[in-house]
């Protein structure tokens, strides 16, 4: 990879140098220089990396987009079933969407697609994930099969929720390492929805692009903080139990998960006015490398009992990592797989930016809810956040070739 990047750097430098020389010579040579520059631009550039070749599998025990690393760009969409659309219409829609998602994730051109939006790109780690909101079951006559875990989330004191950007009958998460590949999937799925659904809301986010750092690193959020150090990892022995509904549940949700989706605006202007020392105290970690203030490196376990020489707690009582820690929440944990967002500025000039928070767990009553209740009561970071939209979705397990997502529910 280092050799490849070096070759590409030389290529771009050569091209830029050639263009600069041509620009200067053009003062004397006139039109001839333009033709020479055009030939230089037409040269095939060296590949930056193999990012476009990365492929995620659509078919399998679990849906993609849950345990996979979060991609560079993401779209979260919610739809409501159109008036008159029933269980049969919903099944037909999920059948179409599943077939198209499988083709797109394999880097293929779906049948009937003439958009050409991502014609030159590989799959670019594309994932497409489908889920059902609470109201979906009422509108399809399936209320008796609605999971008990899909009960409405409780109200939190920090909520300032916009109902128009919350909930929905159907939820789709699309992620890719190339923005055009992600947009192509969004565009195609919306076209294929036809008259079966009505768009409810859409949110677009981003993460650091793969290869942007010298080595793989934990991502940073828009506050500049390393975010996700203590996320459950697929290698953890209890990962599946925390994230996925057990296989032996005997339910159509076996192998599935529950996604809590929150649009969280960060009060960045207020945050930026804090000193570095104060920011680190609010989080409980050093901003430079993510190491806990109790000592060590980023991955050193946090010592919540450590006392400093002056007698104070190394990790403050209201520090975010203390309040959110499983040890502070009877072991409650969830897999956070978020995207940052930037939607311009508000009327007062403040940035409309923050986090598209997506949390995955086997049961939100044992994952998100107890942790958020604790954060709501005593998290020092909450003063710099506004929860502006919310949704909870049942995300069924994956499907085999020839099947579609949700088939066990809709045809069971």
UniProtKB/TrEMBL annotation:
Cofactor(s) required for function per UniProt: heme b
Pfam short name (any one): Dyp_perox_N
Cellular localisation: Cell envelope
Enzyme Commission designation: 1.11.1.-
Domain Dyp-type peroxidase N-terminal: 63-207
Stretches assigned to the Dyp-type peroxidase C-terminal domain: 219-399
Broadest EC class assigned to this enzyme: oxidoreductase
Domain of life: Bacteria
Cofactor-binding details, from the entry: Binds 1 heme b (iron(II)-protoporphyrin IX) group non-covalently per subunit.
Keywords for this protein: Heme, Iron, Lyase, Metal-binding, Oxidoreductase, Peroxidase, Signal
Keyword Nucleotidyltransferase among record annotations: no
Catalytic activity: heme b + 2 H(+) = protoporphyrin IX + Fe(2+)
Family stated for the protein in its record: Belongs to the DyP-type peroxidase family.
Function summary: Involved in the recovery of exogenous heme iron. Extracts iron from heme while preserving the protoporphyrin ring intact.
Name of the protein in its database record: Deferrochelatase
Organism, scientific name: Streptomyces stramineus
